[in-house]
Design brief:
174 residues, mainly alpha, 4 helices, 89% helix, 0% strand
Amino acid sequence: MRTSLTRTWAAGIAMLALLPATVTAQNPAALQQQQQMEQMQRMQEHARQLTETMRQMATVQERAHQLEQQIVQEMEQHRLRRDLDVQFAERLRQEERLREMARSMNVGAQEMHRAMEQLRSMLEQAGTPFQRDVEQEVERLRHHWEMMVGSMEEGIRLLERLRDRVQTSAPTGG
């Protein structure tokens, strides 16, 4: 008796599990609503991932800004020492070039961050339906930006190493 009751109970639960699919298939409005909800969830996930990429870009931007400020301080220290003979003048020119590269990376990171904010705003806008191909392009763009963040992080590391080498290298004659 208990086994029969358990089988009947299991069959009833299985039927209930199929009920939403049956109701959805019979009700096109419910199907459309379900698809819209799924799309909205995907867009929210894209926005969440984009927010993480934006956080990483903000870190790159901050590092570039700090590097630029450090180079400016080092250049000012050299100027204050008033030992700008020909050898130190060349070193100062190299530091100025490095400062400009760091500034450019900072500005580039700021602009990319703004573009990411625009895309995230578009994704988070309630009720904005996207076609599947547009959604795929959004994901490709987010992935591309994520790769660019990695490249910019590597660029900052390279600039920091260049700065360190310029500082530790013996000045060369002009």
